[in-house]
Amino acid sequence: MNICFYVFIGNLYAAGLSTGFAALAQDFHVEFDTLTGLVAWPVFALGISNLFWMPTAMCIGKRPVILISMLVFLAGCTWSIKANSFKDLLASRIVASFGAGSVEALGPSIIADLFSERYFATAMALFALSLCAGSQVGPMIAGFVIGDKGWRWFFVVCAILGAVNFLTSVLFLPETTFRRCFAEDGNGNAAEVEKKVEQTVEQRENEPSPRNYWKDLISFRDRGLEPEGLKCWPGQFSLPFRFLCVPIALFATIAYGIFLSGIVLISAISPQFLSAPPYHLSSSAIGVYTLSSFLGIVIGYPIAGPLTDLLARWAATHRRHTTTTTTTINNTHHPKDRMPALIVPFLIAPPGLILFAYAIAREKSLYVSATAYAMQAAALVFVPSVTMSYIMDVYPQSGSEAMVLINAGKNIVAFGVTVSGAGWVGRDGIVKAFWELAAVQWVVLALVVPLYLFDDSVRRFAGRFVKGWCTF
């Protein structure tokens, strides 16, 4: 629960402030185009921090890293409360988001350590829902707080929630990293390996009993996977970059990032349009409006996973009936069988962008633009459901390293679009800008066609760079 609450608070902090842009524009005397940086840069920090926190956790342990990052987040929140200029506020939000980004990388790993395969999917679903709730429900919470108490009180609420979570994590969040012994030397025979294991077990059984729970919580020595600690940090840092040579990992990064860009861009520019005539929405009303994106995720979530699995099972069953008796059972399953599920976001998400643009430009009902917002948000469950399950299927030993690269890359893509998005919309108009962004989304999703058709060749090529590659 601490991990889920942390990812909720971090995304609440990063995304929620957009509903207070009208008040911030008055207090700091800046344009809305400038204010989008208060969302874009934290998104960048959330992503890039994955590349720092994950290798650090492998060296010193996950519990110390989570607790340290929580203190960084609290320091950033406190700075945000006291910020007296736009630059101060921007810097504080970058610091806090850099701290909060740790849980996006470490959360799935901690959950995998704590839960068996039977309950892992349920725990991950709760984690994913907490992440989405923070970024999509967060603006609604922030809207009511900012509308009633002012934007500084939004950071007070985040600081209080973060402090409570830190204290409970100190007491109840265990270290979940365990070193496991594997027979890595292929030159020894089975008897020697078995004898070595038995000696190790006997030594472990003769050791003193484990320390009690409370003493274990305050010990931070020798908790990482690397025996030499931070000396191994450069090597751990470099591991995710192997996946830059894996086409499906690059596709997942760009696709996830470009659809996240649509959500973040709508969130960043909506206050500018909705607080002005003819809508005249308050901060709290804008917060309620942004809830439509969460509804799109909630509706798409129970469809995306089952649809992806259904397609994979159907293809495997069909292939099993058409293969010869000499074909092994492993050949009936192919990770690429999940890819056709991407036709759903192809048909729904980019049209949602276009519909949103026309609804705002022609001052149509808020229900129309809210529906379009939900259509765009639905892609956030379909794209990762397909791409990440594919990667973990093909690269089970090193897939977590790919997740680090994808988490960092998607936020970098979203940052690039969002930081220039307000100027883009102001220069070309919302209709033209959103048509162009929708076209990019269509082109990116179309790249899945060659990946599907040449899947075997692509995986053979990628296998040269990724250790632990397996074939089907």
Structure description:
With 472 residues, this protein is an all-alpha fold. It has two domains: 1-177, Up-down Bundle (Growth Hormone, Chain: A); 238-465, Up-down Bundle (Growth Hormone, Chain: A). It has helices at residues 2-16, 21-28, 32-35, 37-48, 50-60, 62-82, 86-100, 102-114, 117-136, 138-149, 151-172, 190-206, 213-218, 233-238, 247-274, 283-322, 343-361, 366-394, 399-428, 430-446, 448-453, 455-462. The radius of gyration is 24 Å and the shape is globular. The relative contact order is 0.13.
Question: Summarize this, please?
Answer:
With 472 residues, the protein is mostly helical. It has 22 helices and no strands.
List its salient traits.
76% helix; MFS_trans_sf; Growth Hormone, Chain: A; mainly alpha; disordered C terminus; transmembrane helix; MFS; MFS transporter; 2 domains; 472 residues
How much of the sequence is in beta strands? under 5%
> What is the count of DSSP helices, taking H or I runs of 4+ residues?
22
CATH topology descriptor of the largest domain: Growth Hormone, Chain: A
Dominant shape = globular
How far is the first residue's CA from the last residue's CA?
36 Å
Instruction: State the secondary-structure class.
Output: mainly alpha
The proportion of residues forming helix, as a percent range, comes to: over 70%
Question: What is the residue-mean pLDDT, rounded to a whole number?
Answer: 82
Q: What is the number of beta strands?
A: 0
- CATH homologous superfamily of the largest domain, by name? MFS general substrate transporter like domains
How many separate structural domains?
A: 2
CATH class of the largest domain: Mainly Alpha
Membrane topology: Multi-pass membrane protein
GO molecular function, one term: transmembrane transporter activity
InterPro entries: MFS, MFS_dom, MFS_trans_sf
GO cellular component, one term: plasma membrane
